[in-house]
Design brief:
Elements lengths: L18 E4 L5 E6 L2 E6 L5 E6 L7 E6 L5 E6 L2 E6 L4 E7 L5 E6 L5 E6 L4 E5 L1 H4 L12 E2 L17 E3 L5 E5 L2 E5 L3 H13 L4 H9 L5 E5 L3 E4 L5 H9 L11 H9 L31 H10 L7 H9 L50 E7 L4 H4 L15 E4 L16 E3 L8 E2 L3 E3 L6
Parallel strand pairs: 18-21
Antiparallel strand pairs: 1-2, 2-3, 3-4, 5-6, 6-7, 7-8, 8-12, 9-10, 10-11, 13-14, 14-17, 15-16, 17-22, 18-19, 19-20
Helix pairs in contact: 2-3, 5-6
């Protein structure tokens, strides 16, 4: 074969490929489609990673590997996205261009980035702290957002359900480390199918939904944590808004900041994505905050020094170690949860159902409002889920998981193992959240 001739053709892309780049070792390459960066093996063409920012209105246009091959940068909309290839997680979003960023390059030592934009500027970014393993930011541009971590508080060997009030005046309950059975048994999955079909769902759809919570598998939570005793209330969220939470970019994740900036979001919405009014029936101080999307919930949790619970932490909080179907022992009881069986058709105060509390004393783990959790959606994730501290799929998924059911859904959705997901940018009048903070390691 003569020099300069094509040796292989890679297909399977869904849109134009705007840019490609080899990894420093030559064993893989990155390609840029609209809103997606793919990393593939040169030898086999196998997909090694998909990196998508998802919510920006314009796509990626350029990509570059760091000299050590550990990081990937892409020019996306008016931002530069920085990714850790080992963890496949976004490290930072660099925002400074007034128009589209169309090219990006690392410095020879990998400690700086340069990006060119349609605003006729070149931005230089100091990323030495970002690629050096710390969360401190020392950048030429000040518009760098790095995800903070939850701050451990309190001892790690308290009794389950111990209460405390954090510095924001929010009551939390203590959840000790432990192992439990996550997901549905075969008989429970069949019950889910029967309940859904009985309420009008097509059998095939019911089966797909039920099997998403299978197989049942053991999960061990290795770090104790504090979880909000109640769903975040209107009063609690209003404090975040008044404190400038929407203006403080340091509280927002990379995806969250991209969504906020591209949609000019400066505060909470009064209408959800189904055109429901978010204030008429849902505005009492002690009602759960609704009509906030994943990114807004995430920013609020960070403001309080915490984060959203993982799907495993949420289910452990709800059902304990004995595998009960609901947060309480025994069959469904509409006096213990605000679901559609109650015919209330709106949220209730977060402390309205004390009989439905979970084993650690958490209210509304069934009904009232669905709750955001941190995991991406993954239909087959349970088949390969790690035993210890699972956090869900890391790449290539568009929806985030929500749990717990709501006033607008029936008893099936209130099952502690029932899984549901939605677009992280969407707001609903039946969807809220709660926060967790990891406890200080200590004697078990």
């Amino acid at each position: 074969m003569q020099t300069g001739s094509s040796t292989r053709t890679f297909t399977g892309y869904d849109s134009a490929v705007y840019s490609v780049a080899f990894a420093p070792d030559g064993n893989s390459f990155a390609s840029v489609e609209d809103k997606i960066v793919q990393v593939r093996s040169v030898a086999t063409g196998q997909l090694n990673g998909v990196f998508t920012k998802g919510v920006l209105p314009q796509g990626d246009r350029s990509v570059a590997f760091s000299p050590d091959g550990h990081f990937l940068a892409s020019a996306s909309d008016s931002t530069v996205q920085l990714w850790n290839l080992g963890t496949k997680q976004r490290v930072a979003v660099l925002s400074g261009h007034a128009n589209f960023a169309i090219s990006v390059a690392f410095s020879p030592d990998g400690r700086a980035l340069a990006s060119g934009g349609q605003d006729n500027t070149v931005q230089l970014w100091d990323i030495s702290d970002l690629v050096g393993g710390t969360t401190a930011v020392s950048a030429v541009s000040t518009n760098v957002t790095v995800a903070p971590t939850a701050t451990p508080i309190g001892p790690a060997s308290l009794a389950a359900g111990t209460e405390h009030t954090d510095s924001f005046g929010i009551k939390q309950v203590y959840v000790p480390a432990g192992c439990f059975l996550m997901g549905s048994t075969d008989s429970q999955a069949q019950d889910i199918i029967a309940e859904l079909v009985g309420s009008g769902t097509a059998k095939t759809d019911a089966q797909n939904v039920a099997f998403e919570s299978q197989p049942q598998h053991q999960v061990c939570i290795t770090k104790a944590y504090w979880v909000d005793e109640f769903d975040v209330t209107n009063a609690a969220f209003d404090a975040f808004v008044k404190a400038g939470g929407y203006a403080d970019n340091s509280l927002w994740s990379g995806d969250g900041l991209s969504w906020k900036l591209s949609n000019n979001v400066t505060g909470p919405s009064t209408e959800d994505n189904l055109n429901n009014n978010c204030t008429e029936l849902f505005n009492a101080p002690n009602q759960p905050r609704v009509c906030v999307n994943y990114y807004e919930a995430e920013a609020y949790a960070r403001w309080r020094g915490g984060r959203l619970p993982t799907e495993a932490e949420w289910e452990y909080t709800a059902r304990s170690t004995d595998g009960q179907i609901y947060p309480w022992a025994g069959a469904f009881d509409k006096s213990k949860a605000n679901t559609s069986e109650s015919n209330i058709n709106r949220t209730t105060a977060v402390d309205a159902y004390p009989a439905g509390r979970s084993w650690v004393g958490a209210y509304d783990m069934a009904g009232n409002v669905f709750q955001w959790v941190s995991d991406w959606s993954g239909i087959d994730y349970y088949k390969n889920s790690p035993k210890q501290d699972p956090t869900g799929p890391s790449i290539g998924i568009t929806d985030r998981m929500v749990r717990g059911g709501s006033f607008a859904s029936n008893l099936t959705f209130a099952r502690s193992a029932f899984r549901f997901s939605t677009n992280p940018t969407w707001r609903y009048s039946f969807l809220g959240f709660r926060a967790v903070v990891v406890a200080v390691p200590g004697p078990s």
